[in-house]
Every structure is written in structure tokens, then in C-alpha cells.
């Protein structure tokens, strides 16, 4: 009992203090990073299970930190979301990903579908739709080449508003995927109220296939339900041939994961396209 009380309080307080300091330092650094344009996009291939060919990719942000090297979004995306910097950074992601699509096309690499993550905060930006339209026009992208990935958390705050925006995106012929499916708290009933094209099964369900029977059952149920709603299914985090075979047996349409390629630079992705498309 002696050790509890004050000592613990100090320890706890210190931790709290340290965390607040770290958070503050990260914020300051992120503001600088936005100004100095230290972000870059990596691209992870998405594979058509039926043909084994590359359909497109998901754009994933990285921070080229001057000292710490390439940082994963796990270190900074929440902070960007909380302080609102995700709005300008997200606009840059949209521009950069679409610009990259144009470059690949001009380099004769063919059609590449592009999936882009949009966070809930970006949906609160009144310029969102106009900005997307401008980028699509400028890069002469086929709107149906572009896919927006949204998570269930988008629907938590203002469901009706989210639906209205998604419907406008659908009118623009942009595809919509529900990301990380199965990890949120939402009920399944909302799915049929949304103008969705695809559902992405979260990696958490895929990773222990084929050993975990529960995960196999859940994955099968999610895929069957998606198909009954006429949604295509993307399986995330496909790492093994066994997982791919199981997913294919369930008529899952698209695979994404280390088995087909880790997120990579635009140059590396272009090389992969050249090889697979025999260009
Ligand atoms: P996410 O949208 O679920 O993206 C998939 C994550 O899983 C990526 O992590 C990817 O590298 C990782 N992954 C893909 N295949 C495999 C696999 O086979 N095995 C394993 N272990 N991991 C795999 P990443 O790139 O670190 O991104 C993390 C999250 O950050 C993303 O999760 C997404 O929520 C967010 N994010 C990334 N880029 C952006 C962006 O431009 N805007 C917004 N708003 N969020 C982004
Ligand atoms: Ca995603
Ligand atoms: Ca995901
Ligand atoms: Ca995920």
C-alpha cells in the first residue's frame, strides 16, 4: 500500500506530462512538415483474383522525416486528424495521387484505378466535392478510376450528411469503398442505405486464415453479405497463398497485401506494371 498513492500519482502525472509534450512536439513538427512538403505517397497494388492482374492501387501517405526517415501514418495520421491539418494534407494526397495516375497513363502503362483514403474530418470541409471535381478535370481521370475509401467512423457523427456527400460522389461516378469493414461499431443495416461499390474486409479477419476457424467463418459471412448487397469485396492484408485460395473460393473479387506487393514508391509501382503488363 505504501507504494501506491503519491508515488504512483507522480509517476502517472509524469507520464501524462511527457505524453502532452510529445504530442505538442509532434504537432509543431507536423506543421513544419506540411510547409516543407515532407510527405510522399506510396502505392500498394490491388489484384483481380480472377485474372491475377493488377487493377490499380491504394495511395498510402508517408512522412519523409529529415532525421527519422520514412514514417508510417500510424505515427501521425491521428494528430493530423485532430488538429485539422488532414484537410490540406488530404487535398495534397488527392492531387498527387491523381497526378501520378496521369503520369502512368502518359508513360503508356495503361489504366490504373486509384483508391484514396478520406478521413471524417475531410468530409467536414465544405470545399471537398469541388476540390475533387477540379482535380479530376485537371488530370483527365475517368471518374470511375477513382475510388474513395471511407471508414465506418464517418457515419458516426452525422449519418445523413455523410450519405448526402457520398451520393454526390456517386453522381460524379466516383467509386466508394467502405474501409476496415468489421472493426467499427456500426450496425449492418446502414450498409444498404449507402451508395457503396466495394467493401474492404479488414486485415484483422484475414491474418489468421486458414488457422482460425472463427475468422474463416466471419470472413465468409462478410463476403456473402457484401455480395447479397451487390458490393465487390477487397480483402486486405493478404500475405499467403493459402489466404488467397480461401478468399478466391468465396468469390472475393480483389486482393491486396504483401503477397502481391508492399506499398511502394511510384517508380517501383511503374516498374511492377511494366513487368506484369509486358510493356
Ligand atoms: P488502411 O487504409 O487500412 O491501409 C492499409 C494498411 O495496411 C497500410 O498501412 C498497409 O501498408 C498495410 N498493409 C497492407 N497489406 C498488408 C499486409 O499484407 N500485411 C500487413 N501487416 N500490413 C499490410 P499504412 O500504409 O501504414 O497506413 C495505415 C493507415 O493510415 C491506413 O490504413 C489509413 O487508415 C491511414 N492512411 C494512410 N494514408 C492515408 C491518407 O492519405 N489519408 C488518410 N486520411 N489516411 C491515410
Ligand atoms: Ca484504406
Ligand atoms: Ca483498410
Ligand atoms: Ca486497417
Automatic annotation (TrEMBL):
Q: Which GO terms describe its molecular function?
A: cyclic-guanylate-specific phosphodiesterase activity
A GO BP entry is: cellular response to nitric oxide
The species this protein belongs to is Oleiphilus messinensis
Residues in EAL domain copies: 23-277
Does the keyword Transmembrane helix belong to this entry?
A: yes
Q: What is this protein called?
A: cyclic-guanylate-specific phosphodiesterase
Q: What UniProt keywords are attached to this protein's entry?
A: c-di-GMP, Membrane, Transmembrane, Transmembrane helix
Q: Does the keyword Transmembrane apply?
A: yes
Amino acid at each position: 500500500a505504501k507504494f501506491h498513492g503519491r508515488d504512483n500519482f507522480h509517476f502517472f502525472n509524469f507520464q501524462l506530462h511527457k505524453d502532452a509534450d510529445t504530442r505538442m512536439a509532434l504537432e509543431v513538427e507536423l506543421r513544419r512538415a506540411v510547409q516543407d512538403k515532407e510527405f510522399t505517397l506510396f502505392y500498394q497494388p490491388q489484384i483481380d483474383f480472377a485474372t491475377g492482374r493488377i487493377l490499380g492501387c491504394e495511395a498510402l501517405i508517408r512522412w519523409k522525416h529529415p532525421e527519422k526517415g520514412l514514417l508510417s501514418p500510424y505515427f501521425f495520421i491521428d494528430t493530423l486528424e485532430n488538429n485539422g491539418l488532414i484537410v490540406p494534407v488530404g487535398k495534397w494526397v488527392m492531387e498527387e495521387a491523381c497526378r501520378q495516375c496521369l503520369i502512368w497513363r502518359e508513360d503508356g502503362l495503361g489504366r490504373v484505378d486509384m483508391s484514396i483514403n478520406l478521413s471524417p474530418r475531410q468530409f467536414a470541409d465544405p470545399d471537398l466535392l469541388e476540390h475533387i471535381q477540379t482535380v479530376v478535370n485537371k488530370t483527365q481521370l475517368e471518374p470511375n478510376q477513382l475510388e474513395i475509401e471511407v471508414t465506418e467512423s464517418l457515419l458516426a457523427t452525422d449519418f445523413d450528411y455523410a450519405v448526402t456527400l457520398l451520393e454526390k460522389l456517386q453522381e460524379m461516378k466516383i467509386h466508394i469503398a467502405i474501409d476496415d469493414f468489421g472493426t467499427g461499431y456500426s450496425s449492418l443495416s446502414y450498409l444498404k442505405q449507402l451508395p457503396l461499390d466495394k467493401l474492404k474486409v479488414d486485415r484483422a479477419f484475414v491474418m489468421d486464415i486458414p488457422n482460425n476457424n472463427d475468422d474463416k467463418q466471419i470472413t465468409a459471412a462478410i463476403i456473402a453479405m457484401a455480395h447479397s448487397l451487390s458490393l465487390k469485396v477487397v480483402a486486405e492484408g493478404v500475405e499467403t497463398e493459402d489466404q488467397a485460395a480461401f478468399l478466391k473460393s468465396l468469390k472475393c473479387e480483389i486482393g491486396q497485401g504483401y503477397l502481391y506487393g508492399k506499398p511502394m514508391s511510384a517508380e517501383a509501382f511503374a516498374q511492377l506494371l511494366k513487368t506484369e503488363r509486358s510493356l
